[in-house]
Amino acid sequence: MSNVISPLAAPGANVTQLEPEIRFEHVTKTFGRNDSDLFRAVDDLSLDVYPGQIVALLGKTGCGKSTMFNMIAGLLDPTEGKVLVFGRDPFRNFEWYRGKMAIVFQNDRLLPWRTAIDNVELGLEMLNVSKAERRDTAQRWLSRLGLDGHEQDYPHALSGGMRQRVSIARAFATNAELLLCDEPFSALDEMTAQRLREEFTSLVRENGKTAVFITHSINEALQIGDRIVVLRRPAKIAYDTELKPEMSPPEKEAIRERIREILAT
After folding, report:
1. Which of 252, 244, 212, 245 is nearest to 229 (CA)?
2. pLDDT tens per residue, range 217-231
């Protein structure tokens, strides 16, 4: 598989002609030391994620979403099969991915002793970007996310939504090709979460990124994703569908009902 990233397709285009950025090849992940206490979190999973897609991984708690997330991030090794990101094994090539993947967590994970702009600069510091360049980049992303005037505020002085905006700015500032998002808006009130979903989706598309977004909310998946993958425990694909821009409200409602049926069983 080539490591060269093909040009991005427009939303709704046939992206399957491109090389996948993420590939699960018959992946199984088990935990436990012997057969008597073996827990199977992922079972013979095959999945491709293509450049420019925003893929919502949707499922109930305990269905294996986080295990998949951690294998993509290189934090876990599959028990069987292969996980490839940009054509490489993320677990065995962890350092190679520095600057190529960025993560937005459920909690903002801001360092309380650093100001907003210093938190955004953190990833750039790790990439050895010059002080002037990282300050300029951090300022630009804070402005893009509506945080002008809050650059010198510490996390305790920011609302939950503002802290998550700083977290998003930190992820985009590194210019990583792949964004991994672990329920980043679940702790926010619905109005704030909805605004941030809209902004996040626009930023991903405007900047030509690929995103994998973990959620347990059908509404969030429908708002964020241009593709929804519904999982059943242990991490088997129960439903995989694309959301095209030209879809009518009744077509989206049919998808919503289908997902509800799957999650109810």
Report:
1. 212
2. 999 999 998 999 999
